[in-house]
Amino acid sequence: MLDKIKDLLAEIESLKAANAQEIEELRIKYLSKKGAVTALMNDFRSVPAEQKKEVGMRINELKTRAQEKINELKAAFETDDATSDDIDITRTAYPVQLGTRHPLTIVKNEIIDIFSRLGFSLAEGPEVEDDWHVFSSMNFADDHPARDMQDTFFVEAHPDVILRTHTSSVQSRVMEKQQPPIRVICPGRVYRNEAISARAHCFFHQLEGLYVDKDVSFTDLKQVLLLFAKEMFGNDTKIRLRPSYFPFTEPSAEMDISCNICGGKGCSFCKNTGWVEILGCGMVDPAVLELNGIDSSVYKGYAFGLGIERITNLKYSVKDLRMFSENDLRFLREFESAN
Ligand code: DAH
Fold first, then answer.
1. What is d(CA 312, CA 152) in angstroms, rounded to the nearest whole number?
2. Per-residue pLDDT at 79 exceeds 70
3. Are residues 14 and 118 in the same domain?
């Protein structure tokens, strides 16, 4: 009996299997009810009493070892996927839904692309700013209403630290480091202390443009903005400039484009006027050039600032500003084809 056990142990130690089915066959051969190890246990009854202790121990060892061996074979087989014939390489892959760019990013990139072709390069500035870059260097008088607590987010412990309310602050960031010629566009997020509704949000996105050089004229500005409008909204787009006021430009204007939703005929989006406002612009006030270290007797400049949400609303007829920050996948997936 002890010899039988020894032989069986040697046999089990040398077991090999090529796949899951062979392992199962081995398990049945040795460990099932009719298996070789089980048969030995049945023979145990006929072992003489004085050998029972020793034989019993050996049979138990054999059984444990047989189980371990089967488990080892299984483990080796499971980690070695490449040799597995359980993998069905013909099965269809799990469908993966590709992500899409955010509509504001799509539009921002399109605007950057248009101005890059005109020789503008990218500039950036911080969202957490100081009063100087957002207001003072941009020629805001000390009592200008835009400094009011209702518009601006202040950092409580540091009254000089604010969230920028417009990307015009990047004009100052660029001019303090660089002398003309300057041709930059500055896209970025801005913050205002406004109640959130379909038409207003406490954060949104702007793109600032600044051009400073010798002999820059209002005509240059108008021509560049006309080209931008046509590239962005189609060749038939018309523009009109209305006089306006900004502390950092003189003269200042607001630009409208012919409503691209009704083609200028009048609709609810353009409030039946046929025109929609898309940006503010003007000739850089000489005081701004001086405040930022540029000689205004030599250089002139123009600037413009547009809202990226506004352009996106117009291009894709998005009526509610909140859609841009709610991350509703049903909305975002509508822009798959625009990527
Ligand atoms: N900073 C202005 C705003 O947030 C937009 C603007 C108007 C920017 C005129 C300009 C500009 O550069 O020339 O409403």
1. 24
2. no
3. no
